[in-house]
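Ticket #4471: structure export looks truncated?
Reporter: QA, pipeline team
Priority: medium

Steps to reproduce: submit the single chain below to the structure queue and open the exported record.
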Amino acid sequence: MARSVNSVASRARRKRILKQAKGYFGRRKNVWTVAKNAVEKAMQYAYRDRKQKKRNFRSLWIMRINAGARLHGLSYSQFMGKLKANNIELNRKVLADLAMNHPEAFAAIVNKVK
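Actual output as written to the record:
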């Protein structure tokens, strides 16, 4: 009896990977083994960077709050400490947005905690 090979599933699997590799440069987009490695690596980066994105945004928010607070004579840590002491529960995302786009509102918060 002849060996049964499920070529339909194999082709579908390859097509799926090559479709994911669309837009890659050179052989990465159309050679199966190269494309498979490129897509696997891309998936690893995507998984890792979904976690890193959260860190990067928190870091950006802290920089923006620090810049806004220093305009009013406070460091970031002093400002955040005074916020906690005054029971003002605004998160860093909101504070950073206020510092960037609504400086008068941010100044009101700084004056409240001083």
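Status: closed, not a bug. The export was complete when the record was re-opened. Leaving a note from the reviewer for reference: The first helix runs from residue 7 to 20.
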